[in-house]
Design goal:
Elements lengths: L5 E5 L8 E6 L4 E4 L2 E2 L2 E4 L9 E5 L3 E2 L3 E3 L4 E9 L3 E3 L4 E9 L3 E4 L3 E4 L3 E2 L2 E4 L3 E4 L3 E2 L2 E3 L4 E4 L3 E2 L2 E3 L4 E4 L3 E2 L2 E3 L4 E4 L3 E2 L2 E3 L4 E4 L3 E2 L3 E4 L3 E4 L3 E2 L3 E4 L3 E4 L1 E6 L2 E2 L4 E2 L12 E7 L4 E8 L4 E4 L14 H23 L1
Parallel strand pairs: 2-5, 3-6, 4-7, 5-8, 6-9, 7-9, 8-10, 9-11, 10-12, 11-13, 12-15, 13-16, 14-17, 15-18, 16-19, 17-20, 18-21, 19-22, 20-23, 21-24, 22-25, 23-26, 24-27, 25-28, 26-29, 27-30, 28-31, 29-32, 30-33, 31-34, 33-39, 34-40
Antiparallel strand pairs: 1-2, 35-36, 35-38, 37-40, 38-39
Length: 335
């Protein structure tokens, strides 16, 4: 069923372009295969409708694309020119096609990226994102969002405000943790890892071609994977290395390593740290430590965050089901 539910056209003089606002909010399925030169809103102020929109090959939405209230939207070969904004448990899937502006996902949105070219993603308020393939122009995860990356390529990935990124595969320019966020890297390839402002990064596998950096109470736990460049620490940053047979410039050590001069790390001499990582890999890296930062060995590693609990309407559905089951059982015993 395809219906154009609402179209408001405002004309600002004969020389001005036509500006319009299109709504889909009927609970039906709508395939976009031509150009819509409007802002498009789906299920705005229409909770429970569950409208589905598919932007297919040839489809082009030139304005903002805003999605509300449990709707399902798939981009499968089309183009979105304006910002994408989603709210209220929307399910958004990108299989192919292109987004030319940033995407802002809010309020328990579930996002799956399987392909295509996505400009940039920002998440807020318990959003869940899975990136399996495609090209991503970067991602900023905020406010308890959870992101899993298994493939594809991306610009910088950043987590903050208690968000969590699990990087299992793919290629990225860099991964950065801020403000009490958590990141785990178990595979894939990146240019750098950067932990700052009380964030924590755990590296168990994969490859970092350049550097590990820890600053301002940021912490990196390193037990496996390859790092091709140096270790940089300053402003109370910590790198916790799990393994054995550690030595600094050939001298065995198990004690914390700190700054030699207590200065900015750029003024410190470079030293070499060798050893064996917990997964059996070889540790052989130049490092520089400034200020009150330190490298420690075999410190505790906090477990990764527990996955998000189901959204409220799922919990309510579960409770109703249990209640009905109990009533049936009581009725049967009573009969």
């Amino acid at each position: 069923m395809r219906h154009l539910i609402f179209c408001l056209v405002l004309v600002f003089g004969s020389a001005s372009p036509v500006m319009a606002w299109t709504q889909y909010n009927d609970g039906g399925t709508h395939d976009v295969t031509t150009t819509i030169a409007d802002d498009v809103w789906v299920d705005w102020d229409s909770p429970g409708m569950g409208t589905t929109v598919n932007v297919l090959s040839g489809g082009n939405i030139t304005g903002q694309f805003q999605l509300f209230n449990d709707n399902e939207t798939t981009i499968d070969g089309g183009t979105i020119g304006g910002e994408i904004r989603t709210y209220d448990n929307t399910q958004f899937t990108m299989n192919s096609g292109t987004t030319n502006s940033q995407s802002l996902f809010y309020d328990d949105t579930q996002v799956t990226i399987n392909g295509g070219v996505t400009f940039r993603i920002h998440t807020y308020n318990d959003v869940q994102v899975t990136v399996n393939n495609g090209s991503l122009g970067g991602l900023d995860a905020h406010d308890n969002s959870q992101v899993t990356v298994t493939g594809g390529s991306s610009e910088k990935l950043e987590a903050q405000n208690n968000s969590y990124i699990l990087f299992e595969g793919g290629i990225t320019n860099g991964i950065q943790g801020l403000s009490t966020s958590r990141i785990t890297m178990s595979g894939g390839t990146g240019i750098y890892l950067h932990a700052s402002y009380s964030s924590q990064i755990t590296m168990t596998g994969g490859t970092i071609n350049d550097f590990l950096r820890a600053k301002t109470n940021g912490r990196i736990n390193w037990s496996g994977g390859d790092v091709g460049g140096e270790l940089i620490l300053y402003d109370s940053g910590t790198i916790n290395i799990l393994g054995s047979d550690f030595a600094v410039d050939g001298v065995p050590t198990s004690d914390p390593i700190t700054s030699l001069l207590g200065n900015d790390y750029t003024l410190e001499p470079s030293r070499r740290l060798t050893g064996t990582l917990q997964n059996g890999g070889t540790l052989d890296n130049i490092f520089r430590i400034g200020d009150a930062a330190s490298i420690i060995f075999n410190g505790a590693v906090a477990p990764p965050p527990i996955p998000s609990i189901p959204e409220p309407h799922s919990i309510l559905t579960l409770c109703i089901g249990v209640f009905v089951l109990c009533l049936r059982r009581n009725f049967n015993f009573g009969g």
